[in-house]
């Protein structure tokens, strides 16, 4: 008789543990699909370094009076607001090599609008370094990091 009580209890526990582990796996899968770029980012600073060194050529800290914010949305669009005014909007997508393709759609400055790739590095979830360019094609003797913090 005791055996008949243990069997259903064992079966019930097995079902509960299986259901929990499947749910945890689904949560992890969903988190893996969320791109760290999604969110609002405030400009902090920009630095130009000489190629193959850590020596800074120029440095431009963020201005406390001017807030430059990029908002990257999950639907693949973005908008840039500079000092409370519209600056640029467009689309973004993540390339297979980890870079992002940025395609401006409209621009407050009426510049030539061209798609371009940006490299990015994330320090944790709240610091983004991007716009890393130069040195690769020997077209410049410096490379640039623009640093943003999650708003």
What features would you describe in this structure?
The chain starts with a helix and ends with a strand. The protein is globular. The longest helix has 32 residues, at 2-33. The chain is of the alpha+beta class. 21% of the residues lie in helices and 46% in strands.
Keywords:
1 helix, alpha+beta, 10 strands, globular, 21% helix, 151 residues, single chain
Low-confidence region ranges: 9-17, 27-32
Query: How would you classify the quaternary structure?
Result: single chain
Distance between the termini: 63 Å
Mean pLDDT: 74
Short description:
With 151 residues, the protein is α+β, with helices and mostly antiparallel strands. It has 1 helix and 10 strands; from the N terminus they run αββββββββββ.
Write the layout of secondary structure elements.
Layout: H1 2-33, E1 39-50, E2 56-61, E3 68-72, E4 77-82, E5 85-94, E6 100-107, E7 116-118, E8 120-123, E9 127-133, E10 142-150
């Amino acid at each position: 008789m005791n055996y008949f009580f243990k069997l259903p209890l064992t079966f019930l526990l097995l079902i509960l543990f299986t259901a929990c582990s499947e749910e945890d796996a689904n949560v992890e899968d969903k988190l893996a699909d969320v791109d760290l770029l999604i969110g609002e980012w405030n400009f902090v600073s920009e630095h130009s370094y000489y190629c193959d060194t850590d020596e800074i050529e120029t440095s431009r800290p963020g201005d406390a009076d001017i807030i430059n914010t990029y908002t990257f949305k999950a639907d693949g669009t973005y908008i840039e607001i500079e000092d409370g005014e519209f600056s640029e909007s467009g689309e973004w997508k993540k390339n297979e090599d980890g870079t992002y393709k940025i395609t401006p759609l409209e621009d407050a400055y009426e510049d030539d609008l061209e798609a371009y790739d940006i490299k990015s590095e994330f320090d944790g979830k709240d610091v983004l370094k991007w716009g890393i360019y130069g040195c690769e094609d020997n077209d410049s003797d410096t490379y640039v990091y623009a640093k943003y913090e999650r708003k």
